[in-house]
Specification:
The chain is mainly alpha-helical. It contains 15 helices and two strands. The protein has a two-stranded antiparallel sheet with strand order 1-2. A hairpin with a 2-residue loop joins strand 1 and strand 2. The N and C termini lie far apart (95 Å).
Length: 386
C-alpha cells in the first residue's frame, strides 16, 4: 500500500470517531507541519504525510455550528454566540463561516482583503487599550464605551473571516498596553507591505517586487512575534501572508533568505523602519496612486464616523469625533486644503458644537474655515454675533 494511502485510511477512521480536535492541539499541529515542510522538501513521503495532516486539520475546522476564531473554530450554541469583540450582541450574531479556505490556499486575490483586515485589527488593538483605560477610569459603559464596541463589531462583520481576537475581554490589557500598541503598528505595516506587493507585481521591473517581498517577509514575521507577546495562538492573516510568500516563491522560483522560519524571527522593534521602507517604495514608483489611495481611505473613514454621529442617540460622540478628526487630519496632510468643499460639508452641521474644543491643528483650521463660510452664507447671523 502506498504510504499516503495508509495515512489517508487512518485519517478516515479517525474522522469517523472524533467530532473535533482541541483548539490548542490543532494550533500546535499546524505550526509543526509548517516547520517540517520547510525542512523536508526532498522527502516526498514526509511531504505526503504532512499534506494528509493539513487536510485532516482543515476537516476538523468544519465541526457543525462553529464560530470563526482567527486560525481556529470554536464550537458554540446558537444561543451563546458572541460578537468579534467578545460582547454578547443578540441582534447581530457573528457570521459562522465553516467554508473558510485553508491558509495554505491563499492567492493573489486574497491580498486586498487581508490588508483591509489588518488595518481593522490595528484599530481593534488600539481600541482595546483605550477601552481598558476608560473602564479603569470609571467611564459609563453605555454612554462612553458601547459606541466604540459597536463600531468595531459592525465593521468586522462586514469583512469575511474577520475575527478581532485582540478585543476579547481580558484583565491584563493594562499591563500589556505597550505590546498591544506595538501589535497595532505591526498590523499597519503588514497592510502597507501588502499594498506594495499589489502595486509592484504589475511592474516590468521585477526588482521592486522583490524588495516588497523582503519587506513583507520581515513584516509578517515581526507581526508573529508581536502576536505571541499577547496571545498564544498565531493570527490568521499573518499565517495567510506566510503561506502566500511560500506559494509565490515556489511558483516563481525565487528564494526568500530571511524571516521565513521560526528560528529566524524579525524584531518588532524595527517595525517603523519596515513601514517607512514600504511607504517610500510606493511613493517612488506610484506616487499619484498611493496619494489617491490614502485620501480615499481617510475620507471613507471620516464619513463613516460622521454618519455614526449623525444617527446616534443617547451616547457619547467622543469616540467617533476623535477618529473622524484623525482621518481628516491625515487627508489634509496629503494636500487636501481646509476649504475643500467635501471636508466643509462633513463638519458644517457640527461647527458650533466642536469649535471651542481642543483638536489637532488641521481639524481646528477646518472648523474655523467652516464657521467663516457659515457666516458668509448667513449675514444675519453675523450681525447678531456682532
Amino acid at each position: 500500500m502506498n504510504p499516503r494511502d495508509a495515512y489517508v485510511s487512518q485519517q478516515d477512521a479517525d474522522l469517523a470517531t472524533i467530532s473535533k480536535i482541541s483548539e490548542s492541539v490543532r494550533s500546535a499541529l499546524a505550526l509543526i507541519t509548517a516547520e517540517l515542510a520547510d525542512h523536508t522538501p526532498e522527502k516526498p513521503e514526509i511531504q505526503n504525510a504532512l499534506d494528509t495532516v493539513t487536510t485532516w486539520l482543515a476537516a476538523q475546522e468544519k465541526v457543525p455550528v462553529t464560530q470563526a476564531r482567527g486560525d481556529h473554530a470554536m464550537a458554540t450554541s446558537p444561543d451563546d454566540q458572541q460578537s468579534p469583540t467578545g460582547i454578547h450582541d443578540s441582534e447581530t450574531p457573528v457570521r459562522a463561516d465553516s467554508g473558510r479556505p485553508r491558509h495554505s490556499d491563499v492567492s493573489d486575490n486574497d491580498l486586498e482583503l487581508i490588508a483591509e483586515r489588518c488595518r481593522l485589527k490595528a484599530e481593534g488593538a488600539r481600541w482595546a487599550v483605550e477601552r481598558d483605560e476608560l473602564l479603569r477610569d470609571g467611564a459609563d459603559f453605555s454612554y462612553d464605551i458601547r459606541p466604540g464596541d459597536q463600531d468595531i463589531i459592525g465593521r468586522a462583520r462586514e469583512l469575511p473571516n474577520c475575527f478581532l481576537w485582540m478585543n476579547q475581554p481580558r484583565s491584563d490589557i493594562w499591563s500589556r498596553s505597550d505590546s498591544y500598541l506595538l501589535l497595532a503598528d505591526c498590523f499597519e505595516t503588514l497592510a502597507e507591505c501588502v499594498e506594495a506587493i499589489l502595486v509592484t507585481s504589475k511592474l516590468e521591473d521585477h526588482s521592486h517586487f522583490m524588495a516588497a517581498i523582503d519587506m513583507m517577509a520581515e513584516a509578517q514575521s515581526a507581526l508573529r512575534t508581536a502576536v505571541s507577546r499577547v496571545e498564544p495562538h498565531p493570527d490568521s492573516d499573518q499565517q495567510m501572508i506566510y503561506y502566500w510568500l511560500r506559494n509565490r516563491a515556489n511558483q516563481d522560483r525565487f528564494y526568500i533568505s530571511r524571516f521565513m522560519k521560526i528560528t529566524d524571527p524579525a524584531d518588532p522593534g524595527r517595525n517603523d523602519d519596515v513601514h517607512d521602507r514600504a511607504f517610500e517604495l510606493l511613493e517612488a514608483i506610484a506616487p499619484d496612486q498611493h496619494l489617491t489611495t490614502q485620501i480615499e481611505r481617510g475620507m471613507a473613514k471620516a464619513r463613516h464616523h460622521v454618519e455614526r454621529i449623525a444617527t446616534a442617540e443617547d451616547v457619547s460622540d467622543e469616540y467617533d469625533w476623535s477618529r473622524a478628526a484623525e482621518s481628516i487630519e491625515a487627508v489634509m496632510e496629503c494636500g487636501i486644503p481646509c476649504d475643500s468643499n467635501e471636508l466643509l460639508q462633513l463638519v458644517k452641521p457640527f461647527v458650533e458644537q466642536l469649535i471651542d474644543q481642543e483638536w489637532p491643528q488641521g481639524f481646528q483650521d477646518l472648523l474655523a474655515t467652516a464657521a467663516r463660510a457659515d457666516l458668509d452664507e448667513n449675514p444675519s447671523q453675523a450681525e447678531r454675533a456682532a
